[in-house]
Amino acid sequence: MTHELIRVEDVGKTYGSVLALREVSTVVNAGEVTCVLGDNGAGKSTLIKILAGVHQHSSGRMLVDGAATTFGSPREALDAGIATVYQDLAVVPLMSVWRNFFLGSEPTVGFGPLRVLDRKKGKAVAKRALAEMGIDLRDVEQPVGTLSGGERQCVAIARAIHFGAKALILDEPTAALGVKQAGVVLRYVAQARDRGLGVVLITHNPHHAYPVGDRFLVLKRGRSLGSAEKAEITLAELTRQMAGGAELEQLAHELGGVDSESGAG
């Protein structure tokens, strides 16, 4: 039986008179990827901020491990095993890979005021954790800014897994990447899923979501267009929902008209 980590039921969020999210429901299971899709302004960021403890929902309810929950801060979400990797990654480009891996939780040796960084242990732990995710770096002392965009994403994912995350929220991890690097990140998403984590993948690209996704939630202007499991929806239908269906057909018709007109001359 699949273990349910997070469930949101008819969750809504208002900011004063602005309705940012309305009656959104989905589930995040251990060992599965729930993909949340939508264009800019669809409500994706609002939803993940509720899951991550940045904001509290105004209506509906959120259950974590079966218990109704409202997080008061991101720290509370993290303590409950929900880690969020934002698009800006929260890395320090000029700092070494291993220091970025720990970033505030570095191992130390000694006692009291005599405590110092345990560099040897830190480098060994970071190198091993990254290798388990398939990133084989010769030198974890190199600045994290020298890594590719995909590799930096994977350092952030490996860090979350190492520090005990049960659910991993990834905010547009492939947005600024080329095809090859996006593929690298999606492989690490699949690895996190296969290690038993529940993954929430936020994206606007159905072609990135479909290969790794087990469940798909499409948002538009703060509302859900529906939630479906992979067996219930094709990539073509998912793309159609994302593009707005009728709007896409209208656009195709208009573009087809332009092509035929230009060809007539």
From TrEMBL:
Highest taxon in the source lineage: Bacteria
SUPFAM superfamilies with a match to the protein in the record: P-loop containing nucleoside triphosphate hydrolases
* InterPro entries for the chain: AAA+_ATPase, ABC_carbohydrate_import_ATPase, ABC_transporter-like_ATP-bd, ABC_transporter-like_CS, P-loop_NTPase
Pfam family name, one: ABC_tran
Please report the stretch or stretches of sequence annotated as the ABC transporter domain: 6-246
**Coiled-coil ranges (or none):** none
One molecular function GO term is: ATP binding
Concerning Gene3D superfamilies, the annotation shows: P-loop containing nucleotide triphosphate hydrolases
Alphabetical keyword list? ATP-binding, Nucleotide-binding
PANTHER family reported for this sequence? CARBOHYDRATE TRANSPORT ATP-BINDING PROTEIN MG119-RELATED (PTHR43790), SUGAR ABC TRANSPORTER ATP-BINDING PROTEIN (PTHR43790:SF8)
Q: What is this protein called?
A: Monosaccharide ABC transporter ATP-binding protein (CUT2 family)
The record lists the lineage as:
Bacteria, Bacillati, Actinomycetota, Actinomycetes, Pseudonocardiales
